[in-house]
Design a protein that fits this description.
CATH class of the largest domain: Alpha Beta
Largest sheet: 7 strands, parallel
CATH superfamily of the largest domain: Glycogen Phosphorylase B
Radius of gyration: 21 Å
Helix content: 40-55%
Distance between the termini: 13 Å
Number of strands: 13
Strand content: 15-25%
Order of helices and strands: EHEEHHEHEHEHEEHEEHEHHEEHHH
């Protein structure tokens, strides 16, 4: 299948959370025998061994707009709030950005024949009308994939701190299929007009996310960005235990933590490659996820799949639907309180064999069911069913 992809960005320097997953999924699509061409919606194109690219027709506009939104976010401005520049930005999108993208896609689709237009977390209200026009003129399906569910839904956007609400003014009926990383939001999307809605969970690239043989000099580790909406479980799994277990070595990497993390050692930010070594240095790794993901059924994030693929022993907060992906008690441990967390830590730190068995079992489960090759094959099956 020949696939034209519009991706939110493919430049890792832009620090958008989905980008590492996009790289892995696009590589998997190539490995499954598809020909992939990518256009970034934000920033410049980045060539790889697995896809070719076309230029972003609004590269500098996208960078300037993203910088403006970042500035507003740093100042604590609401994503749904309006500013003096909002009418100008709306007019620029309607009169300049949208027409340029429509023209750009028309030229590409006229030059080359594609079997699918696949959009990945593009601002929906920026491209209203384009999917319908593409289907009418070129007779190919248009499929949308949102990897930011459930927090990108309008009812969560402001509280979660996203830069803007891209569902406002969007037309979900334009898409032949709508994919989401969360099974629990499917009814919401259907009410908003989406058709053929399917869960397409996160996964891992089995060649990239592999265990590293390093000395395990950290007892308990966590890596993440921001404490917003996970304060309760960071306190229960890190702050309280680190104070009450002075003989245990806790380490936290990442940043933007606005809560007291007790005796945990702060490591600072890590690159994607450093994250692997940090996880593999740790005897126990923590999965602490924001409340929206843990409360909305089967809302996948990359973290548990990555930790499992590294062969880590994982302890998690309660997570609605996590049993869809892992065997609890064999491949991952879930605790209900700070007291249970400390009891579990003590048991696992005293039993190297159990930790290693859990890590091996988790990695085996990933390789069997949760690679991005599995996700790519699922995507192609969905597209074929549309015909």
């Amino acid at each position: 299948m020949k696939i034209l992809v519009m991706a939110s960005t493919i430049d890792l320097k832009n620090k958008m959370g989905c980008t590492p997953a996009w790289w892995q999924l696009l590589k998997a699509l190539y490995e499954e025998g598809n020909e992939v061409t990518v256009i970034p919606y934000m920033g410049i194109p980045v060539e790889s061994l697995w896809w070719k690219t076309y230029d972003n027709p609004c590269a500098w506009e996208s960078i300037m707009y993203n910088n403006f939104l970042e500035m507003r976010k740093r100042r604590g401005k609401s994503p749904g709030g309006k500013s003096f520049i909002s009418p100008i930005a709306d007019l620029l999108i309607k009169r300049h950005v949208r027409p340029r993208w429509a023209s750009h896609l028309r030229k590409i689709l006229t030059k080359e024949k594609f079997d699918l237009l696949f959009m990945m977390s593009i601002p929906l209200n920026h491209i209203t009308g384009i999917p319908a026009a593409v289907k009418k003129e070129f007779n190919i399906p248009v499929v949308y994939y949102d990897g930011d569910m459930p927090t990108i839904l309008p009812k969560y956007t402001v509280s979660r701190g996203f830069k803007f609400n891209y569902y406002e003014g969007a037309d979900l009926t334009e898409y032949d299929a709508f994919l989401t990383n969360s099974a629990g939001v499917i009814p919401d999307l259907e009410k908003m007009g989406a058709r053929n809605v399917h869960a397409l969970y996160y996964g891992i690239d089995p060649d990239l996310v592999t265990p590293a043989e390093v000395e395990k000099d950290i007892d308990i580790a966590f890596f993440g960005y921001g404490s917003d909406f996970r304060e309760e479980w960071m306190e229960k799994l890190i702050t309280i235990p680190s104070r009450e277990m002075p003989d245990v070595n806790f380490a936290v990497a990442g940043g933007n933590f606005a809560i007291d993390l007790g005796r945990a050692k702060m490591i600072g930010d890590l690159s994607y490659s450093q994250w692997r070594r940090f996880s593999c240095r740790s005897k126990i790794n923590l999965n602490i996820t924001r409340w929206s993901h843990t409360n909305i059924f089967a809302s996948s994030t990359s973290r548990p799949f990555e930790l499992a693929a590294f062969g880590c022993c994982i302890v998690s907060q309660p997570y609605n639907g996590i049993e869809q992906w892992f065997d609890i008690g064999k491949e991952m441990y879930v605790v209900e309180s700070a007291a249970q967390a400390m009891e579990t830590y003590r048991r696992l730190l005293a039993d190297k064999d159990e930790r290693e068995r859990a890590g091996r079992s988790a990695r085996a489960r990933i390789l069997k069911e949760h690679t991005f090759n599995h996700r790519a094959a699922r995507l192609i099956d969905i597209v074929k069913s549309l015909k």
